[in-house]
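Moderator note: this is an archived Q&A kept for reference. The question asked for a predicted structure of one protein chain; the sequence and the answer are reproduced below.
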Amino acid sequence: MELKRDKDYFLKWLIGTGDVIVINVVFWTLFFLLPAFQIQVDNDRWREVLLCLNFSYLVSLYFVPIRIHSSVVFMEDVTRRAIILTTIQTLLFAVCLLFLGIKNNSSFIQLFFLALTFVFVLWRIIVRLILKWYRRKGYYSKQVIIVGAGKNGLELYRVMKTDLGYGFNVLGFFDDNLLLKKELPNYLGMTHEVEPFLDTHNVDEIYCTLPGTQDEKILRLMNYAEKNMIRFYIIPEIYRNVKKSLVLDIMDTVPILSIRKEPLELLHNRILKRAFDILFSLTVLILIYPFLYVIVGTLIKLSSPGPVLFRQKRTGLYGKDFTCFKFRTMRVNREADELQATKDDPRNTRIGSFLRRNNLDEFPQFWNVLKGDMSVVGPRPHMLKHTELYSNMIDRYMVRHLVKPGITGWAQVTGYRGETKSMESMAERVKRDVWYIENWSFLLDLKIITVTVFNMIKGEDNAY
């Protein structure tokens, strides 16, 4: 076990050394390749510059510590943390140069940040892929046992075995139900045999899935693990029925489990998302929308009588109604507030089908974004009739209203745009909307926008 901890420290130092090399290589490469953007430094002050460059990285690690070696780290998190680290590092470096009175070219700092971010993200992703490959070969893996072979225990075993790159080597199960002995992948004994097994085997972690009614056994095993420096984890019994991520919080000394994490509950995330919404919507409304309105508006007027813009009440944040704007794509009809558009819908105008297929009908909603009723990215707002219908038929349907609705969303870029022909299809869309709320990140928003733009260019078959 001591050797295992030594490997952890060695790996962190190895990754940190690689980080420092990447930072210095990027800096010197830019310095020699782009002489026009060089910072002005006297020969006797280069030591100070290099000290600032590397010291700023070490300080950045305080805010964004190395976790890439952890068992379960997703690539989106690797990318996000790498970008945050290079941002902090570059800002600290620039501030250090300023305080030292070293004149620096702001263009060089900007180029350094962009180049460093790209190379650093690539470096961290490569390290993570190499580490997962290494673990799949059976090296640098954690030796674990699972105590309790109920539904939670078997589910945990399945997850650990799904991707060997996580680095878990499950030695087997302990359970007092002897009937499971022949059914389990590797039955090691009853719960009172755990301690003798630990005395004779090198085990790094214990995962306990025993029900709460067996708290005496759980406390005994936990105390033993603490005394022998073995990490001990408890899988909540409620997970048998609630198959989702639970978030642990503490109120004084009382642990509280919430049923989801919501990154947009944090003030700085909301500020970041709103700032991006304002900047992005203003750019579109100033540079694109005026020309689009004249062209599309003329074609709409020529295609059928009625207004250029279609206004409809939709369900927004916390279930509040708001007026949603779109370019009108249908002939004026009484069913607009009740029926979805369908394939070969007779209500569609010729120009309307084109606008829908290429997402152009959504552009007026950037006014909704600027007003604050919507966001660029979020669950699509539904008409009031559908909210009333589906909220009574689909679990967690109203959860999608915990954030502002969006012009585009995760459900739309993963195959659930347009008409929902069945209750199962709508339930799947809701599932993706809730996933977005629980896994929001600024990078995820950028990814969704990029895919949406690509879909606009190629057109979408299921948009009508």
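Archived answer notes: Residues 267-458 form one domain.
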